[in-house]
Amino acid sequence: METQLRDGRTAVAAGRAPVVLLSGVASDSHTWNLVYLQLLIEELGYDVVNLGPCVPDEVLVEACRVQDPAMVVISSVNGHGYQDGLRVVGKLRACERLVATPVVIGGKLGVSGEQSARNVERLVAAGFDAVFDDGGNGIAGFRDFVASVRAARRPMVENVETPA
Hints:
Cobalamin-bd_sf, Rossmann fold, globular, five-stranded parallel β-sheet, Cobalamin-bd
Protein backbone atom coordinates (compact mmCIF):
# COMPACT_ATOMS: atom_id res chain seq x y z
CA MET A 1 0.00 0.00 0.00
CA GLU A 2 1.40 3.40 -0.97
CA THR A 3 0.33 6.66 0.61
CA GLN A 4 1.11 10.10 -0.76
CA LEU A 5 1.53 12.59 2.08
CA ARG A 6 0.88 16.32 1.88
CA ASP A 7 4.56 17.23 2.04
CA GLY A 8 5.33 15.10 -1.04
CA ARG A 9 6.73 12.08 0.80
CA THR A 10 5.48 8.64 -0.10
CA ALA A 11 4.88 6.08 2.63
CA VAL A 12 4.75 2.41 1.65
CA ALA A 13 3.49 -0.71 3.40
CA ALA A 14 3.10 -4.03 1.64
CA GLY A 15 1.14 -7.14 2.54
CA ARG A 16 -1.74 -7.78 4.88
CA ALA A 17 -0.08 -7.74 8.28
CA PRO A 18 -1.09 -5.04 10.76
CA VAL A 19 0.66 -1.75 10.05
CA VAL A 20 2.99 0.03 12.45
CA LEU A 21 3.69 3.65 11.65
CA LEU A 22 7.32 4.49 12.50
CA SER A 23 8.62 8.05 12.71
CA GLY A 24 11.42 10.21 13.94
CA VAL A 25 10.53 13.37 15.85
CA ALA A 26 10.44 16.68 13.99
CA SER A 27 13.83 17.83 15.29
CA ASP A 28 15.72 14.57 14.72
CA SER A 29 17.54 13.89 11.44
CA HIS A 30 18.91 10.45 12.35
CA THR A 31 17.92 7.48 10.20
CA TRP A 32 19.91 4.46 11.39
CA ASN A 33 17.63 4.04 14.40
CA LEU A 34 14.56 4.02 12.15
CA VAL A 35 16.03 1.39 9.84
CA TYR A 36 16.92 -0.81 12.80
CA LEU A 37 13.45 -0.43 14.34
CA GLN A 38 11.74 -1.12 11.01
CA LEU A 39 13.62 -4.41 10.64
CA LEU A 40 12.87 -5.38 14.25
CA ILE A 41 9.17 -4.58 13.95
CA GLU A 42 8.89 -6.45 10.64
CA GLU A 43 10.59 -9.42 12.29
CA LEU A 44 7.76 -9.35 14.84
CA GLY A 45 5.13 -9.74 12.10
CA TYR A 46 4.08 -6.22 11.16
CA ASP A 47 4.21 -4.18 7.99
CA VAL A 48 5.99 -0.90 8.68
CA VAL A 49 5.34 2.51 7.18
CA ASN A 50 8.60 4.33 7.92
CA LEU A 51 8.09 8.09 7.60
CA GLY A 52 11.77 8.75 8.19
CA PRO A 53 13.50 11.54 10.09
CA CYS A 54 12.44 15.16 10.71
CA VAL A 55 8.72 14.39 10.41
CA PRO A 56 6.56 17.44 11.13
CA ASP A 57 3.81 16.75 13.67
CA GLU A 58 1.06 17.44 11.14
CA VAL A 59 2.55 14.95 8.66
CA LEU A 60 2.66 12.27 11.34
CA VAL A 61 -0.96 12.89 12.32
CA GLU A 62 -2.07 12.86 8.67
CA ALA A 63 -0.21 9.60 7.99
CA CYS A 64 -1.93 8.05 11.00
CA ARG A 65 -5.33 9.12 9.71
CA VAL A 66 -4.59 7.59 6.31
CA GLN A 67 -2.93 4.38 7.52
CA ASP A 68 -5.05 3.67 10.62
CA PRO A 69 -2.05 1.86 12.17
CA ALA A 70 -2.13 -0.88 14.77
CA MET A 71 0.60 1.05 16.61
CA VAL A 72 2.67 4.24 16.31
CA VAL A 73 6.38 4.11 17.19
CA ILE A 74 8.33 7.35 17.61
CA SER A 75 12.12 7.32 17.88
CA SER A 76 14.67 9.95 18.86
CA VAL A 77 18.45 9.93 18.89
CA ASN A 78 19.21 13.65 19.17
CA GLY A 79 18.11 13.98 22.80
CA HIS A 80 15.00 16.07 22.18
CA GLY A 81 12.50 13.21 22.20
CA TYR A 82 11.06 14.23 25.56
CA GLN A 83 10.18 17.75 24.41
CA ASP A 84 9.05 16.73 20.93
CA GLY A 85 7.17 13.73 22.32
CA LEU A 86 5.13 15.80 24.77
CA ARG A 87 4.05 18.05 21.94
CA VAL A 88 3.25 15.45 19.28
CA VAL A 89 1.43 12.91 21.47
CA GLY A 90 -1.21 15.51 22.31
CA LYS A 91 -1.83 16.04 18.60
CA LEU A 92 -2.03 12.29 17.99
CA ARG A 93 -4.45 11.72 20.87
CA ALA A 94 -6.61 14.63 19.68
CA CYS A 95 -7.31 12.59 16.52
CA GLU A 96 -10.41 10.50 17.25
CA ARG A 97 -9.12 7.50 15.29
CA LEU A 98 -5.97 7.35 17.43
CA VAL A 99 -7.46 7.57 20.91
CA ALA A 100 -7.04 3.82 21.55
CA THR A 101 -4.07 3.18 19.23
CA PRO A 102 -0.90 2.20 21.12
CA VAL A 103 1.67 5.00 20.80
CA VAL A 104 5.20 4.56 22.12
CA ILE A 105 8.37 6.63 22.17
CA GLY A 106 11.94 5.63 22.71
CA GLY A 107 15.62 6.31 22.23
CA LYS A 108 17.67 9.15 23.60
CA LEU A 109 14.90 11.28 25.01
CA GLY A 110 17.03 13.86 26.82
CA VAL A 111 20.36 15.53 26.19
CA SER A 112 21.61 14.65 29.66
CA GLY A 113 21.04 10.92 29.33
CA GLU A 114 18.40 8.67 30.86
CA GLN A 115 15.11 10.33 31.73
CA SER A 116 13.98 10.64 35.31
CA ALA A 117 11.03 8.58 36.47
CA ARG A 118 9.11 11.86 36.69
CA ASN A 119 9.71 12.67 33.01
CA VAL A 120 8.71 9.16 31.95
CA GLU A 121 5.52 9.55 34.01
CA ARG A 122 4.84 12.86 32.25
CA LEU A 123 5.20 11.23 28.84
CA VAL A 124 2.78 8.47 29.86
CA ALA A 125 0.35 10.99 31.37
CA ALA A 126 0.52 12.99 28.11
CA GLY A 127 -0.68 9.94 26.17
CA PHE A 128 2.14 7.48 25.45
CA ASP A 129 1.38 3.85 26.23
CA ALA A 130 5.05 3.08 26.87
CA VAL A 131 8.39 4.89 27.04
CA PHE A 132 11.66 3.16 26.17
CA ASP A 133 14.59 5.29 27.26
CA ASP A 134 18.21 4.60 26.28
CA GLY A 135 18.81 3.16 29.73
CA GLY A 136 16.32 1.13 31.72
CA ASN A 137 14.00 -1.12 29.73
CA GLY A 138 15.58 -0.47 26.31
CA ILE A 139 15.16 -2.67 23.28
CA ALA A 140 14.19 -5.85 25.16
CA GLY A 141 11.23 -4.05 26.73
CA PHE A 142 10.29 -2.60 23.35
CA ARG A 143 10.39 -6.03 21.70
CA ASP A 144 8.17 -7.46 24.44
CA PHE A 145 5.71 -4.56 24.13
CA VAL A 146 5.43 -4.88 20.34
CA ALA A 147 4.94 -8.63 20.60
CA SER A 148 2.23 -8.16 23.25
CA VAL A 149 0.32 -5.71 21.04
CA ARG A 150 0.45 -8.24 18.21
CA ALA A 151 -0.79 -11.02 20.49
CA ALA A 152 -3.65 -8.87 21.79
CA ARG A 153 -4.97 -8.08 18.31
CA ARG A 154 -7.68 -10.31 16.95
CA PRO A 155 -6.75 -12.20 13.81
CA MET A 156 -8.42 -10.98 10.63
CA VAL A 157 -11.08 -13.38 9.37
CA GLU A 158 -11.47 -13.58 5.63
CA ASN A 159 -14.77 -14.23 3.90
CA VAL A 160 -14.96 -17.99 3.56
CA GLU A 161 -17.59 -19.57 1.39
CA THR A 162 -19.47 -22.36 3.08
CA PRO A 163 -20.78 -25.27 1.08
CA ALA A 164 -24.51 -25.17 0.34
